[in-house]
UniProtKB/TrEMBL annotation:
TM region positions: none
Domain RNA polymerase sigma-70 region: 7-69
Gene Ontology biological-process entries: DNA-templated transcription initiation
InterPro entries: ECF_Sigma-70_Domain, NTF2-like_dom_sf, RNA_pol_sigma-70_dom, RNA_pol_sigma-70_ECF, RNA_pol_sigma70_r2, RNA_pol_sigma70_r4_t2, RNA_pol_sigma_r2, RNA_pol_sigma_r3/r4-like
PANTHER family (UniProt xref): ECF RNA POLYMERASE SIGMA FACTOR SIGJ, SIGMA 19 FACTOR
Coiled coil: none
Residue span, RNA polymerase sigma factor 70 region 4 type domain: 105-156
Protein name: RNA polymerase sigma-70 factor (ECF subfamily)
Subunit comment: Interacts transiently with the RNA polymerase catalytic core formed by RpoA, RpoB, RpoC and RpoZ (2 alpha, 1 beta, 1 beta' and 1 omega subunit) to form the RNA polymerase holoenzyme that can initiate transcription.
Assigned protein family: Belongs to the sigma-70 factor family. ECF subfamily.
A GO molecular-function descriptor: DNA binding
Top-rank taxon, per record: Bacteria
UniProt KW keywords: Sigma factor, Transcription, Transcription regulation
């Protein structure tokens, strides 16, 4: 097998590792591409291409994450991972770990870890690498890596919320949610939301966004029922589909450009959380991106016109 064939066979795994460490589709793709460039230029013939390339993409991702953490500390408003529509790497034996680890809730928990803890946890707990492989990837001894994973497990367990496992139930609830959303059905929305539901948006200062999270079923339902029917009346479309393994939807303007992405967190037959990614910088991998300020102004004018009629 040639270098190119080896690399392409492992590309889905390399991207999935990098995305979980970085929480960014663009940065993960860049890390994978840099891994290829280094592999192609190397004269080393590794015993295991998988171990070699996984270690290389992990080290690159750790370096990127260290610099990214500084930017995220200065980020305007809540920071959410870039939405991922489909994980390219599949492993039936680790399907549960892979699905759980890509949710936005899990990725936000991973943000609490140090770069080394995060990388060690991802390699060991998500992808099942041996501690010898983890040690080679992060540049620490095996005992040190065991400690990194123990600390990471503890931090993840402290904040973890298990979401609805039954995909059919989640899909049915999401269908009812988005139907009520499009109709502006306040009572319908309220009935699907948990009493302590939270709604938060990531605009990064580059799109209209909430000043703070909205809490409680009544407040969240009223906000959604007030905003989204108006957007749909302006030609915005709602495209329900899984996002980061959870029920979600892509909203597009009348030209088909991406306006925002919504992700639902479902537990016990109710929506526990609603996350909105509206920062245009985080949507480019999904296609052409709409100007959210234009839609915001159109919505404002339509409301004024309606109020004046």
């Amino acid at each position: 097998m040639s270098k190119v064939e080896e690399f392409e066979e492992l590309r889905p795994l390399l991207f999935s590792i990098a995305y979980r460490i970085l929480g960014s589709v663009g940065e993960a793709e860049d890390a994978v591409q840099e891994t290829w460039l280094r592999y192609d230029a190397s004269t080393t013939v590794p015993d295991s291409a998988k171990a070699y390339l996984s270690a290389a993409v992990t080290r690159l991702s750790i370096d990127v994450l260290r610099s990214a953490r500084v930017r995220r500390e200065e980020y305007v408003g809540p920071w959410f991972p870039e939405p991922l529509l489909a994980d390219p790497y599949q492993d039936p034996e680790r399907a549960a770990e892979l699905a759980d680890s890509v949710s936005m809730a899990a990725l936000l928990l991973l943000e609490r870890l140090s770069p080394l803890e995060r990388a060690a946890f991802v390699l060991r707990e998500v992808f099942g690498f041996g501690f010898d492989e983890v040690a080679g990837a992060v540049g620490r001894s095996e005992p040190a890596c065991r400690q990194l994973v123990v600390r990471a497990r503890r931090h993840m367990a402290e904040g973890r919320t298990r979401f609805e496992a039954d995909r059919r139930e989640r899909a049915e609830l999401a269908a009812r949610f988005f139907r009520a959303l499009s109709e502006g059905d306040l009572d319908g929305l309220r009935g699907l939301l948990a009493a302590d539901v939270s709604l938060a948006g990531d605009g990064g200062g580059k799109a209209p966004q909430l000043a703070r999270a909205v809490l409680g079923a009544d407040k969240v339902a009223r906000l959604l029922a007030a905003v989204y029917p108006g957007l749909l009346a302006l030609g915005v479309s709602c495209e329900p589909r899984p996002v980061n393994g959870q029920p979600g939807a892509i909203f597009r303007d009348r030209e088909g450009a991406v306006l925002n992405v919504m992700v639902l967190e479902v537990l016990d037959g109710q929506v526990q959380g609603v996350r909105l990614v509206v920062n245009p910088d985080k949507l480019g991998h999904l296609g052409p991106v709409a100007d959210p300020w234009v839609l915001h102004e159109e919505l404002r004018r339509s409301r004024q016109g309606g109020a004046g009629s």
